[in-house]
Amino acid sequence: MNAYYQLINTQTADDGSVTTFYKSTDHAQGAWNTHEQHMAPASGVMAREMENFQPRDDMRIGRISFDIFGLIPAGEFSITTRVIRPGRTIELIESEMQAQGKTCIVARAWRMATQNSSAVAALEDPAVHHPDTLPAWQGISHWPGGYIKSLEAKIAENHRDGKGIVWLNNSLEMVENFTTSDFVHLIGMVDTANGTAPRQGSNITWAFPNLDLQIHLHRYPSGQWLGLETVQQYGEDGIGLTSAILHDEQGPFGRSEQILTLRKLG
């Protein structure tokens, strides 16, 4: 199997909503539990549904917000996508993943009208070293699970506990027998930011699963390599935050945030 998911069936309802049925493969296996999916490919397959749902040439996705309701079971699941706020210049769509009779993830994406704004375009986030210039990184391999095993990782200088730059890629399709767009390929790795610069290093005594994933895109990404310029911070009352500047091989294209629930192990 050379993909994270298998497509089973697709149904379109009278109200225009689309439900697609999938089955996860071992490549989508999570790092915290063997019987769950990793949020990264799960968000990738949901991004695929949103990208393909009633596409419009004059709009693109500018923000995706994923709320994680709990453990994402491995195996069969469905994703239902609908428009919840239609419009000419802004449009809000929603995708809901369900498995074993329960909601696992709810994602909402703003689609925004595009126009030529090159006359005022400006960025504050600088580009970082291209992945071709960096060494391979084995540090991510201390995390278990099929998803982590599917990744190729490279690391930049000055990486330390709680902060650093890591580039990721994988050779898998998101869905078996379907070509994966660059957008889906890259969005399907963003959630990995939470494990690329853990503040505790490799001696983890507190778990730090994220409850959400927020992605803001000032540019539509392209290419195969995802750069994560990550900072992880812990508060004093059991809540933390992982923040990342997102890069492709052309430069920065957006940012992500993940709220963390800190849980002492043992």
Automatic annotation (TrEMBL):
The UniProt record lists the Acyl-CoA thioesterase-like C-terminal domain at 133-260
Fetch the Pfam families from UniProt.
4HBT_3, 4HBT_3C
InterPro entries from the xrefs?
Answer: ACOT8-like_C, Acyl-CoA_hotdog, HotDog_dom_sf, TesB_ACOT8-like_N
Cite the Acyl-CoA thioesterase-like N-terminal HotDog domain residue spans from the record. Answer: 30-112
Q: What is this protein called?
A: Thioesterase
Please report the organism this UniProt entry assigns to the protein: Marinospirillum insulare
